[in-house]
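$ run holo --ligand "magnesium ion" --emit tokens
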Amino acid sequence: MRILLFSGKGGVGKTSVAAATGLELARRGHRTLVMSVDPAHSLGDSFDMESTLFERRTSEPYVINDHLSIQEVNIQHEIHRHWREISAYTISILRNTGIRDVEAQELAIIPGMEELSAMMYVNEYRRENRFDVIVLDCAPTAESLRFVSMPATLDWYMKHVFPMQRGLLKAFRPLAKHVSPVELPKDSYFTNVQELFAKLEGIGEVLENPRITSVRLVTNAEKMVLRETQRAYVYFSLHGLTVDQIIVNRVIPDAVTDEFFREWRASQQQILSEIEAYFAPVPVSRIPLFTREVVGASRLDTLAAVLYPSEADPAAVTRLTAPYEFRKVNSHYEVILHLPFVGKGDVKLFKKGDELVVEIGTLRRHVGLPTSMMNLSPGRARVENRQLIVELVE
Ligand SMILES: Nc1ncnc2c1ncn2[C@@H]1O[C@H](COP(=O)(O)OP(=O)(O)O)[C@@H](O)[C@H]1O
Ligand SMILES: [Mg+2]
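-- output --
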């Protein structure tokens, strides 16, 4: 199975590109699902559906044609399906603080639930071998990063926090009736957490395996959008995901000679050449600004024809370079992180247990070290050939 994850700034064209890719993959005979993980769902709109997917009151995939289905993860359905115990507890706490029922229900949607629910689906479909390709239409960059960092965070929580919390509560419960200001979660809460975790088992490896998962960044030829695309590239790499395509949408076509667009065209050309240089060797594709919105199957087909002009399969695995790797150099070891836009000054490194922690801005990645390197600490770091190289020393 392949997972193609489309990410980028709000409004750049992720949904249109994801939907068009879905149609193209289906045309080539792949059993395809396009899944929207953006809470502001617009996948149904992109296919110009009369009624929204939400009105169907289910998250089940909606069949578009023989090989293509689409799905919008609907958090209200998901709460019912997966999160009952957890949200029941959260709601009871909120009620205790005097918040009304409806508001408590709204507030009980913990950030990240949508992403986790989508991951559960991906995992379920993978186990059932239900689809050949899952196209993920992601929320804007920050949220899609939460999507990919979730498995590692959860893993950490389940290993380090969960057993302690559960154990402590068991011991504390008899006393708590008298002293605790809030109701403590029942043990079924913990069972629910465990069940959820079991459904997510293995998803982290799936996302980090470049033979299964590829990230495709959608951008526009504008400076601010490009900056965000670069940051996204760094963060995805930091989380171990492989970016295999950059898609520049809304490029003003050569045929537009109107004086009004002269400066726009010049700056787009400039940014396009920067994009090619920055992301090399990751291939950069272009989509023109069309004369109208890309809504409905026939316009999505037009977009697909531009984006996939050759016989090359959009699901093909084209890049296998891991975002980071380890090597031994003479007497010391090195960790090589492929982070082309990072200066050595932006990065903080330290050791925590058997992990190397890399911090870039507010983002943090735990890189598990192989046994042979567990006792080493980060020494000097240097930037070389668009790679950050960290020496690990005794
Ligand atoms: N190349 C294009 N030419 C014209 N309109 C486009 C193009 N790409 C996207 N659009 C339109 O722009 C709007 C936003 O696109 P969308 O795919 O929903 O972006 P995102 O999912 O990134 O927020 C939609 O109305 C879409 O039809
Ligand atoms: Mg969208």
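-- notes --
The longest helix spans residues 141-179.
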